Amino acid sequence: MNTIIEKTDKDNIDKEVILKAADILRNGGLVAFPTETVYGLGGNALDAKASEKIYAAKGRPSDNPLIVHISRVEDLYELSPDVSPKALKLAKAFWPGPLTMILPKLPCVPDSITGGLPSVAIRMPSHPIALELIRESGIYVAAPSANLSGRPSPTTAEHVANDLAGRIDMIIDGGPANVGLESTIVDLTEDTPTILRPGFITLEDIKKVLGSAEMDKALMSGIKENAVPKAPGMKYRHYAPKGDLTIVLGDDENVSRKINELVAQKEGSGYKVAVMAKAENVCRYSCKVIKNLGDSDAEYAAHTLYSYLREFDDMGIEYIYSEGFDEDKLGQALMNRLMKAAAQQVIKV
Ligand code: TXA
Ligand code: MG
């Protein structure tokens, strides 16, 4: 399959590009497009054949459900029989934006996109190209992250092309995604709203609007062996670089000493090694490849993490050592993804 790649500026959208992409979606094809979190791989959410194509293009297990993207809050009522006051409050506070809500599903939502679950994940993205595309297509757009299953989510059109060129109909290149980490997922099907995947919208943000909310126990650090995450996708070892990633936690001085020691050992044995460190600490390290994670607020780190992991793969890096971040605000989402990429491999010093 020949994949059309079209560029357009999010602040000056080329209508022709949107019309072409909307046409492909309406006809059951697949289009990758930018969102404010990561690039998504879109297909018609109510067309079971289109969702089959999404799973096939990504090589994604079919029990891992997709997020349905909408362009108007009213669309919630077309997908769920039970749009609670809590859901409306969250939509008012955070949509369009990087928040996904899990609600009971109506029968029109095919089981093939919910992995057989009685609930559906719904999000209204804020990226102008995403919103315009959904609106113009006139359909609801199922869109997982536009990567091959098991690879880091794509934050640029180039990442998408590397994974999916030849497997999908079109890629809209609208520049890099802003946040860089996938949306926050909140489950509203139980009494207490529960975050199943941390993201840019934090637990505190949600508590401010709803009063109470909690984190899925399976996501907390020190994960209990038998706690199964409620978002099926969170059980897979996602975002995994080919190299062996270890996170070193402690005070800056001890962390840099430990990492330098490990780097010297591995480089001494002829391995290709990389370090990821906060901007203020970069000068502490002696390693051939050092990536800057920016300030401790984790914004820049979130924006660049997946790119770095992909670069390390391309460079054939065999060992990666990373500093950690405080688990507050965006730091929580960042540490969640970093820990998954490291398969929970942590050294405390
Ligand atoms: O930021 C994002 O959310 C991006 C952009 C493209 O919008 N999309 C994204 O989709 O990250 P994906 O498919 O990579 O992740 C969807 C996550 C998976 O972990 C899946 O298991 C969970 O959402 N999910 C979907 N439907 C669910 C449901 N009914 N109940 C629980 N978890 C669900
Ligand atoms: Mg994904």
**Strand content range:** 15-25%
Q: Helices and strands: which structural class? A: alpha/beta
- Tell the overall outline: globular
| Radius of gyration from the alpha-carbon trace, in angstroms | 20 Å
CATH class term of the largest domain:
Alpha Beta
Summarize the biggest pleated sheet.
11 strands, mixed
The multimeric state of the shown protein is: single chain
Bound molecules: threonylcarbamoyladenylate, magnesium ion
The CATH superfamily label of the largest domain reads: DHBP synthase
Summarize the helix and strand pattern as letters.
EHEEHEHHEHEHEHEEEHEEHEEHEHE
Gross CATH architecture of the largest domain: Alpha-Beta Complex
Tell how many strands the DSSP assignment holds. Answer: 16
Kindly, what is the distance between the CA atoms of the first and last residues, rounded to a whole number of angstroms? 51 Å
Count of separate structural domains = 2
The overall pLDDT, averaged over residues, is: 95
CATH topology value of the largest domain: DHBP synthase
**Sequence of strands across the biggest β-sheet:** 1-8-2-3-7-4-6-5-9-10-11
Number of helices: 11
